[in-house]
């Protein structure tokens, strides 16, 4: 190993160690997963597994839940630390009843608000809520206000395409998942264990 390489790595380690020492704050954060690529909701489910591993309580709220049950619904819904609320609706283009969708969105949001005021719930997942704001089914200002008044140590994971600027600004960690390729475009239907 060359000495310059060793020195470079040493400096890098020192820098990383100092950054790790500086990051000494513990607080609830908002993680936003947006973009057109696959991996947003399943990433949220991954964080749920992490939280459950530490015996934390999780509120799982799914807006725009499709008719098809997912593997995680089957696996997680009966878990004693999961508190869930699902919007009883398919996609808008299936139901084609805007008023009904709006009413159901509101009902589901009221359930979400309960979780967002309960300090015993450590992580709240708001799956596909971005669409509720973009379709004007829910009021962005009310959502942002509820998020900023949630218990201090509560984490929130938000998923959905085309997140509004308000949601991005309110979030601490934001990832945009890019759609580089998707198997569906090669006529491969949604696969159990991967897509649902
Ligand atoms: P996942 O739940 O797999 O993490 P996601 O939450 O990122 O996906 P959504 O927009 O919520 O993506 O769509 C959910 C479903 O649509 C999943 O079955 C997913 O595989 C599929 N999907 C996601 N992105 C694409 C895409 N770019 N093209 C086709 N199908 C997609
Ligand atoms: Mg999703």
UniProtKB/TrEMBL annotation:
Gene3D superfamilies given in the database record: P-loop containing nucleotide triphosphate hydrolases (3.40.50.300)
Principal location listed in the UniProt entry: cytoplasm
Keyword field: ATP-binding, Cobalamin biosynthesis, Cytoplasm, Nucleotide-binding, Porphyrin biosynthesis, Transferase
Pathway(s) where this gene product acts: Cofactor biosynthesis; adenosylcobalamin biosynthesis; adenosylcobalamin from cob(II)yrinate a,c-diamide: step 2/7
GO biological process terms, semicolon-separated: cobalamin biosynthetic process; porphyrin-containing compound biosynthetic process
UniProt EC number: 2.5.1.17
Regions annotated as coiled coil: none
Molecular function in Gene Ontology: ATP binding; corrinoid adenosyltransferase activity
The reaction(s) this protein catalyses: 2 cob(II)alamin + reduced [electron-transfer flavoprotein] + 2 ATP = 2 adenosylcob(III)alamin + 2 triphosphate + oxidized [electron-transfer flavoprotein] + 3 H(+); 2 cob(II)yrinate a,c diamide + reduced [electron-transfer flavoprotein] + 2 ATP = 2 adenosylcob(III)yrinate a,c-diamide + 2 triphosphate + oxidized [electron-transfer flavoprotein] + 3 H(+)
GO CC annotations on file: cytoplasm
Taxonomic superkingdom: Bacteria
Location within or outside the cell: Cytoplasm
PANTHER family found in the cross-reference section: CORRINOID ADENOSYLTRANSFERASE (PTHR46638)
Family per similarity comment: Belongs to the Cob(I)alamin adenosyltransferase family.
Purpose of the protein: Required for both de novo synthesis of the corrin ring for the assimilation of exogenous corrinoids. Participates in the adenosylation of a variety of incomplete and complete corrinoids.
Protein name, per record: Corrinoid adenosyltransferase
